[in-house]
Structure formats: C-alpha cells, structure tokens
Amino acid sequence: QSALTQPASVSGSPGQSITISCTGTSSDVGSYNRVSWYQQHPGKAPKLLIYEVTKRPSGVSNRFSGSKSGNTASLTISGLQAEDEADYHCSSYAGTTTFVIFGGGTKLTVL
Amino acid sequence: QLQLQESGPGLVKPSETLSLTCTVSGVSVSNSNNYWGWIRQPPGKGLEWIGTTYPSGGSNYNPSLKSRLNISIDTSKNQFSLKLSSVTAADTAVYYCARRTGESYSDYWGQGTLVTVSS
Q1: Which residues 45-84 on chain B approach chain A with CB closer than 8 angstroms?
Q2: Measuring CA to CA, which of A39, B31, B52, B57 is 20 to 30 A from A106?
Q3: How far is A99 from B107, CA to CA, in rounded Å?
Q4: Residue A104 has pLDDT above 90, yes or no
C-alpha cells in the first residue's frame, strides 16, 4: 500500500489561510472517516490536531480544521501564526490488511 | 496525566534484533479502552506505522514488517514492547510509542528514541 500523497511544502504569510491536501485512494481515505492530522515541530513528537476527518481534540485551536472530499482529505489553518511553522502529517485507516498509512509530510513555512 | 516513555539501545548491529520498551504512566495498559502502538520516522522522512497491540493480547502489524515484528504487553510493569528482528540500515529511525484509539489516531505520544543500525 502506497503512502498518502501530500505536497512537500506550503507557505503563507501571517494572518492568511492555507490548506494542505492529503490524497489517498478508495481503499483508505475514500472509504473511511478515520483521517487524522498531526503537527510536528523540529525534534519533537507529533501532536494530534484533527481526528476522524473533522474533530479537534480538547486544547487544539479552532484555527485548525479538517475536511474530506472523495479520496482527498484537507487540513486548513486559518489566521496563520509564526508558531504554526512545522511539519504536518496526515494518516488514514486503510482496512484490515494494511490497517494504517501516513502521508509523506508537508513542511509549512510562515513567511 | 497520561505519559509514555520509550527506552532501549540507541545502536543496534545489522542482522540483530531491535528491542524497545514503552513505559506508560497515568493509565493502565490493561484498560480495554486503550490500544498501544509503535510508529517510526527515518531521518528527514515521514511517519510510518509499525503496529498496534491490544489488552486482549492481539496485535495488528504493518504488512511490510510483519515477518520480523513482535509487539507485546506486560501488564505487571504497565509497559508494552517492540521487537524487530534482522534489522538493516533502513530500520534506522526515531521510534515513537503512542496510545492509539482503535486504528484511527494516536492522541498521546512518547518523546521518541533514535535507533541507529550500524556495525
């Protein structure tokens, strides 16, 4: 099973909104509402931002939102802040053979 | 507060077995609502799910690693462990342990431990 496809990098200015895509197939993203997103600062462990496509854990800013259309999930960050500069990873459940796959990660640069 | 901490050798020789332990505090690993998993990240690359173990004793493994992999739970020590045999340089990575909710997401992570495979 191939990894989910994410852009290698995205950038935006403070205050702007950006969207990171995560493209899978009908065997993973397209079939299950079990897409999650993680933020990872350099040298740190990933932090859960979004789970089950659209849900935010307690304590995560409402500037982060998730959505899905067909085989592609998206993470939108509104009101970009300097501290949002990090790597972002998506993940999806992929059925009872492959179970879990991740994307290759996207580096967000806040200009 | 739930916390996880990985421990184990930072250097493993090629063809040997990589062994890591994750010590959990703040919740019992035998709680049926909690699943426990391992995820790794090669230097400069993305995350890779390794496998998940359940309090019942069952496990799900990444198909690409399954033949070399064993993940188990030790309820007496509130720990779970990873053993990956016949390692090569491609297994060099930061290894994270995490609490998983089903096979949906990981909400608590350890800090990660770098394991280098080299002679």
Answers
A1: 45-49, 52, 60-63
A2: B52
A3: 17
A4: yes
pLDDT in tens, B97-118: 999 987 889 999 999 999 999 9
A68, containing H or E segment: strand A64-69
The pLDDT tens digits of the residues spanning A15-24 come to 999 999 999 9
- List the Cα angle A106/B1/B2 in 5-degree steps: 60
Tokens of A30: 């397209």
Residues of A with CB under 8 A from a CB of B: 1, 3, 34, 36, 38, 44-48, 51-52, 57, 89, 91, 93, 97-105
Helical ranges in chain B per DSSP H: none
- pLDDT value at A74 more than 70: yes
Distance CA A77, CA A5 (A): 19
Burial per residue of A15-51, b for 16 or more beta-carbon CB atoms within 10 angstroms, e otherwise? eeebebbbbbbebbbbebebbbbbbbeeeebbbbbbb
